[in-house]
Amino acid sequence: MFFRMIKGAFTRQWKKMLMIALTIALGASLATAMLNVMMDVGDKVNQELKTYGANINVVPKTSSVVDNLYEVEEGEDANTAYLLESELGNIKTIFWAFNIVDFAPFISTSAELSSGEEVKINGTWFNHHMDLPTGESLDTGIQNLRTWWDVTDGSWLNEQQAGSENSVMVGSVLAERAGIKAGDTINVNAGGKDYSLTVAGIYSSGDDADEQIYGIMDMVQEMADKDGYLSNIEVSAITTPDNELVIKAAKDPGSLTISQYETWYCTAYVSSICYQIQEVITDSVASPVRQVADSEGAILEKTELLMLLITVLSLVGSALGITNLVTASVMERSNEIGLLKAVGARDSAISGLVLTEIVITGIFGAVIGYFAGFGFAQIIGHTVFGSAIEMKPFVIPIVAVLVVIVTLAGSIPAIRMLLRLRPAEVLHGR
Amino acid sequence: MTKRKMFIRMITASLTRRRSRMLVALLAIAVGATILSGLVTIYYDVPRQMGAQFRNYGANMIFTSAESDKDFSRDNIEEAAAVISSGDMVGMTPYRYETVRIHEQPIVAAGMDVEGAKITSPYWHVEGEWPSSPNEALVGEEVAALLGLSTGDTFNALYTPREDEETEEDVLNMGVDMTVSGILNTGGSEEEYVYMSMEDLESIVGGDPRFDLVELSVSASQEKLTSYVDTISGGDFGVSAKLVKRVTQSESTVLTKLQALVFLVTAVVLILTMICVATTMTAVVTERRKEIGLRKALGASDKSIIKEFMGEGLLLGGIGGIIGAVLGFLLAQFVSTRVFSSSIAFQPLILPATIIISILVTGISCFLPVRSAIEVDPALVLKGE
Lengths: 430, 385
Known about the structure:
Chain A is built from 14 helices and 14 strands. By secondary structure, chain A is an alpha+beta fold.
């Protein structure tokens, strides 16, 4: 009889049930979408913040201070320490290798233009292809690390193109002064030898680099007579904002307990990534670029908190809305409940009946809602970040629990109120 | 009794007698309106609040002298800076760079406005203190390592004038004793300099005050920044303004995405909330089909029934909208103080917009079920079919 009544409710009152199911589906889709977006927003925004460039700079341990300050005086003896090019691949083998988005090595030397002007020429990777010891491969270089460069003439230097060995990119200020255009061939003298270079593009960067030339690593190493050596590496890594543990570790990693040390080592703090890079690159010092690392942390924290509060807010809102609707639809059934009481049904039987109906409807709605929410989350991910939002499996139980709580909270007070009514009054229509 | 009086009486009676149902409906509308006004307020304020966070990246505009061989004075700077509205200006720090000798090593010393630098370079990590009294200096970490200096140490800074420069003999020979107030760590080239107040640098170097460049931190959109730069460089200030491309370009990219994110989230939440309000109102009205049938049987015209129900709905929508608009602002205020620890800007337009939208939504969601109810034959409705 119980099942027959339930079945009856769904077949005969399907319109009402559908409405409840739809409302619950709406709420569940909202919860699914918001929770998933909220949990993924940290990673997504972190990716976006990578446009600020490298947040870790790796230099040789004994790098001389004088070199950077007196760029003009830079000669063969000024800079004494170098990093080894052969160790570069190691960066992608550290514990947090997956978090390292891009990196590029640098070496610089000075060269003389045909006009007699002395300029700084930097060797680096533009879009270098690299096969890793792990079997993976990646393309990395300054094309990703200098997103703010505006190529005003020509195009980015393509390293993988044959015949690009002697190509360079020239800063806009220098190019204007020396009358260099994309496609030109310029003659320079470096380390006592003459080179003729093809200009692939002119860039405007808004800083010192506008006065410099960027060329391919091997060529500049040859000019500087430093085959296989690097002066520094810029690394762009996705990091977790700093907390107290990091401050403690920064003072002295030795002061941490073993478990604290493990937590620190196994979290993507900028300091632990620096530490791990130092472990794999001989005689190096990896230090966070404070301007980038600190600001990223602050912005990330604010965005996550903002999304968290908006999520909580909309969840509370939709929960109230659904509770409301469920209450309204249960109260609507006063006639039916009165009749049941009049023919002698016990309170527990009536509550059981109504609750079962609502819960079945709720589950039905929640399933639809979950998939609709999945769709919403992907729309947000693709429109805003141009990539899919990762669906976290533990959102499912959270949504399920929320739906059950909300439907019960909506129906129980209404049922209790209806049970208190006297059947005669209800049936009489008052 | 006039018609109008009866109308008002019927509406108020229906609201007071069916108190619990009406409360349910009112609650739904108020919650919807709260979310609407709260989220929209947050959405409008996000660029401003987030923009302030992005100022953590430090200066995004630089002033240099318009002609490289000509110095620019404090007057030039102040006139040029006046172009930027005071609401957008976050901070401004003039710098002067000179090479001095410390422990017989040539080191670049920078004179600056200490209070300004705290704002334009918020990412500087200072171990120890910022210079606060005369003859105190902030020493970059690499310089400190090179010279073996630590906080509290003193050093002597000497200046060797350029050949064409005339400086008093005593400054040249004696130098000035400075105390290290703190060690600067930035991970960038700042670690290779010694920073001190402008007055201290002038006492070491002697001669007239001058500036090499000014760093400015301006909180404004990309277009506004560009127009500031054009006005200043184009004007007759003797100053050439440049944007720090790396900071401004990236900021506008990230900020655009963030605003789009909040916009989409707001849109999704709003659509769902509206549907929720609409379904609740529909349920509340559908319940009263019997009442509609009875009125029709008594001879009420369709028009008067619709008018009455709409009157009720619009009244509910209005009250709910007002409650929601106020609550929503408080809510946005709460979020803003929690996240950005600053109060939110009040958008006067959102208040009436929230009320109008909630009246519209309630009105539409009342109208549809009422219309379908009056189409039905009263006899059928009353019989309960």
